[in-house]
Design a protein that fits this description.
mainly beta, four-stranded antiparallel sheet, about 350 residues, globular, 1 helix, single chain, Tachylectin-2, Chain A
């Protein structure tokens, strides 16, 4: 991956009556020649939504980002997703939308949500028309439910962070950000962890599930401060090869954060299908093999922010594929929305 350039969007810029921010997923719509970027706004600032944009670049420079439209995503009843406060009063599903992909068959949109464990809302993958209207929901194995006893299932804010179509569009990959409760502890600065990546057919049939080895947190936080590491997005390159973006946030003594982002290539060749393992603790299995493709921090950018989206783009003039990353600024004034453009070298 060769860095070509960077663009940023202004903090909390307004566009068509919405506050832009929280961009946690990006995908290129080849048929339309534009880009889809989903916001993880939990309907607090504006209803859950995705943006369309035009990105102007070539193999020498990243020229501009232009937002062109915003689309509100709708629940099965045709209403916008509620905020957590409105959910308490009126029901529905609170969104925490982390990834969006354009269906290569018809241009519709698939998107994932991490759910909300305290509210007993499981993660989901939903399918919508390009105009945001609900089409269907991907059936999921029972392991992704949120049981009342809290002894298994996804951890809060550690669930469906990554989503990607296989190149032929016939299947979907879905990744957990961090380990499920029954699979062991979260990573820390000394020890990594294992999380699950699942390969689905479009009807929800599981083609395979694999254990991904997360790195240990790459730096120690300040005394009593926060640190994490998990999968922030995936990008399928074939039926057996996937790019995985690991993102770590480490809080210093003064409360500031530093983000660490690495991109790995994994292969399912030789890895155990763990779909029938109720727990990874004490189980015998072979995890996915991974190879470091890029440590983004080694690029010596002025800033590496909370990168959460990754997508292939159009072919560059030199014949190589382009690839774009986007960061989620959490709507915070101390973060930025950055888009990084790369040449993907074979």
């Amino acid at each position: 991956m060769r860095l070509i350039g960077e663009q940023r969007l202004p903090w909390r810029v307004q566009f068509q009556g919405t506050m832009v921010g929280g961009l946690s997923g990006i995908d290129y719509d080849a048929a339309r020649g534009d880009w889809v970027m989903i916001s993880d706004d939990r309907s607090e600032h504006n209803p859950a939504r995705y943006y369309r944009a035009r990105l102007a670049y070539d193999d020498k420079s990243f020229k501009s980002v232009e937002l062109t439209s915003v689309v509100t995503l709708l629940q099965p009843d045709g209403k916008a997703y509620p905020s957590k406060e409105n959910f308490k009063r009126h029901g529905g599903v609170v969104p925490d939308l982390e990834s969006a992909r354009v269906d290569p068959r018809d241009g519709s949109i698939w998107y994932s949500s991490e759910g909300d464990v305290p509210a007993r809302l499981p993660p989901f993958v939903r399918h919508a028309k390009a105009d945001g209207a609900f089409l269907s929901e991907l059936p999921l194995p029972a392991m992704f439910n949120v049981p009342a006893d809290g002894k298994s299932g996804p951890r809060n804010n550690q669930s469906f962070e990554g989503l990607s179509f296989s190149p032929d569009g016939n299947s979907l990959w879905v990744s957990m950000e961090g380990p499920m409760i029954q699979d062991g502890a979260l990573p820390d600065p000394r020890t990594g962890a294992f999380t699950r990546i699942t390969h689905f057919e479009r009807d929800g049939n599981v083609l395979g599930q694999f254990a991904y080895p997360l790195d240990a947190i790459p730096a120690s936080p300040g005394q009593g401060k926060f640190a994490d590491n998990g999968i922030s997005e995936i990008l399928a390159l074939s039926e057996s090869r996937v790019l995985v973006m690991e993102r770590s946030g480490v809080q210093a003594d003064d409360g500031s954060f530093q983000d660490f982002v690495r991109i790995y290539e994994i292969t399912t060749d030789g890895a155990t299908d763990i779909r029938n393992l109720a727990t990874l603790k004490g189980s015998a299995y072979t995890p996915l093999k991974k190879r470091l493709v890029l440590d983004v921090n080694e690029l010596k950018l002025p800033r590496v922010d909370n990168l959460e989206g990754i997508s292939l783009g159009p072919v560059l003039p030199n014949g190589h594929a382009s690839l774009v990353l986007v960061s989620d600024d959490n709507f915070g004034k101390d973060q930025v929305t950055q888009l990084l453009l790369f040449e993907l070298i074979p």
